[in-house]
């Protein structure tokens, strides 16, 4: 889909710097996928909330109907399986299944010069949002798995959170979607340990 122009961005959780090629990087696309899956996780997500994520990632021509949001939810549910995969082989098998069933042929688009050339797996630049979400996400997650030889993301380890996240570069494996969840769980573990110590 669609045209991506410079955004005066106050991102939702956000793409990195407002740079023409950074905004189209594989990592930014994967991050957008995670943010959209999280925004679409409610039973009835408000179109405005989903629109806000798309705008944060530079999409300008966004007018989502409730029906389009419902269709995007179905795409998000399928993509969530990639983040839920326990290991690299399972993530790869899940992506292969989605690529086989839900994407078109690989092609390049520059949206008539409005963006850098980048690959697409949806069938046309004006494909429905749900198709675009699934195709662009499968592509980015596939490249990340290829590049790193590990799952492209995960699901937050906090029992009170369903968010997904993208694994960043190297370093110790990430377990939580956000610093907020990591802190909450650390405090909870600390309290449990103290309660146990103080128990008679
Ligand atoms: Zn979380």
From TrEMBL:
Residue ranges of domain Zinc finger CGNR in the record: 155-192
Region (Disordered): 1-22
InterPro entries linked to this entry: ABATE (IPR010852), ABATE_dom_sf (IPR023286), Znf_CGNR (IPR021005)
Name of the molecule in the record: CGNR zinc finger domain-containing protein
Organism in which the protein naturally occurs: Streptomyces bauhiniae
